[in-house]
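debug: dumping io for the single-chain case to check the tokenizer round-trip. Nothing else runs in this session.
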Amino acid sequence: MEDRYELNQYGLRVKKCCASCAHKNLEHDPCTGNQRWCDKREEAVFIDDVCECWEMGAIGLAGKGEKGKLRIKRQEYVDWFGANWPKLKALGWDAADMRNDWERQNGQSIYM
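debug: decoded output
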């Protein structure tokens, strides 16, 4: 299923589906119950549909990885959080406490 993904200009994987396609139209005809429309194929589509007409839309290009648009967490933090969350939550910590502790210990933001 790796062919269902394409790298954007930041090197991040974007799933090829209607939700990330440049041809989607979310305001086509709400009376039909299908709020998602493909302007290229001229038919109703669903969020996970993919076809040969797929082109990366603006969200895939600009929204994933562009500074100020989306904040990407460091993999080291994600791994540390997953390993430590159960025991620290039991001690009354929340996600903000964990973020602050990791940043203090590592001297850098959790975000790339």
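debug: round-trip ok. The chain has a mean pLDDT of 78.
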